[in-house]
Description:
This protein has 4 helices and 9 strands; from the N terminus they run H-E-E-E-E-E-E-E-H-H-E-H-E. It is mainly beta and 144 residues long.
Amino acid sequence: xxxxxxxxxxxxxxxxxxxxxxxxxxxxxxxxxxxxxxxxxxxxxxxxxxxxxxxxxxxxxxxxxxxxxxxxxxxxxxxxxxxxxxxxxxxxxxxxxxxxxxxxxxxxxxxxxxxxxxxxxxxxxxxxxxxxxxxxxxxxxxxx
Length: 144
């Protein structure tokens, strides 16, 4: 039964026109970046929530967007991979930064393909915001 679920997990699609802000609420800014890494370097990372993915990043890319303040559950994943989750309680008018990186736990799971399909490819972390000089080496993805 697990094998069937793995094959049915399919590809992740990027949702367009996802409404992340409401006119009547306060907002927060998010900057998300993905550093270059050999592990998972050939696959896209998708970020979203509630099974809608609205950010796609490759190695050395970043994006930024506004979102309603409040509680948010973000999911980071690759195609046909389970998603990792990151919960953020976002205060109004505050900038938050997320770093997305390959999951080191997946390296050992690659030996056994069935287990590898149960381990998220990417993990997201709430981190201190990088400087403009740091992001100068990254390409903005312009997803939202």
